[in-house]
Design a protein that fits this description.
By secondary structure, the chain is mainly alpha-helical. The protein contains 16 helices and 4 strands. The strands form 2 sheets. A two-stranded antiparallel sheet has the order 1-2. A two-stranded antiparallel sheet has the order 3-4. Strand 3 and strand 4 form a beta hairpin. Helix 1 (9-25) packs antiparallel against helix 3 (36-42), helix 5 (63-91) packs antiparallel against helix 6 and helix 7 packs across helix 9 (197-209). It is globular.
Length: 354
Amino acid sequence: MPSHTPRNTTIDIARGIGIILVVLGHNEAVLQGKGELFRVIYSFHLPLFFFLSGVFLKDSALPGPFARSRADVLLKPYFVVLVLLGIAEMFSPHVVPVATTTPLAYFSGVLYATTPTIAWTPLWFLPHLFVASLVSMAILRVTRPLPNRRAWLVLITCALLAAGIAWIDSFWQIDTARLHFMGLDKLPGLPWSLDLAFFSTACMLAGFLLGKPVAAMHFSAAGFAGAAIAFAALHFYFDETIDLNLRIYGNPLICTVQAALGIYLVLCASALLQRYAAFRRPLSYVGSASLFILLFHYTAQGRAFLALSHISGNLYLLSAASLAAGVLLPLAMLELVRRQRHLAALLLPLRSKP
């Protein structure tokens, strides 16, 4: 199977929309009560990111260089941020507050790397994406010599998706005494969220399989309208959603169709928005900085909300302002980091160093 075409603006715009949805999904107005907007966003935003990551997979990549590259992009900033946060908390607990814990529990939690074990919960995605990338690449390498390879990949993707949905909560919140040193009495999933690997790998393989159509995608008014109506109808009549953090997957058929429709809607909208520079440039920029926004949006948005709450009590005004802060402050930090050689070496991929 030939390698995929290079990254285009449609996919970068989709990443931009996706990371804005991630920030919005962690916004106080959305989280409060976990209402309809929460269920809509969570029904597809993480499958979207796994899918887009799969679009960029190249089955010709060598395992060693691929693993090193993925570690540089994903694991390095994860460990740098959480280790520095833990050290800062040890010396200045009131300046850098994290959950009350011992150093052993904190740093063990960083190594375990699931939502309940780390201070900044969105960062669980980075080590898990590393694992899912390696598993996906291993499957692509193993299947390269097979006749009818595409059919095999479709079959494997469907099997992984079914297994991931069926076993999504098999290792979640099970009583255990083995993690008392981390301050936990229930299993917080498997390390690095390995229990989600079936699902995330399936999404990535789907992205790989559909990489060429996605790269060549054009906006279809009829397709967008039909998908939007179907997406809205499913949410209206069934009200199902996904929350991978909490290992929740509603009705398997409804949730899977909703996720697929949500991904299509974002890609279709991105194909339209790329025609207009006023949308293409900022959203592509946000998309190219999506991992950095993931790193810092949680605390930027939360701190902005708390600070602004002393000025206004309007929840929606506060939420809108903190949403902007959750996107713009990490972007400002990124520009500063790019200009500092040592910070860039710690937080950015080596190829992005100035």
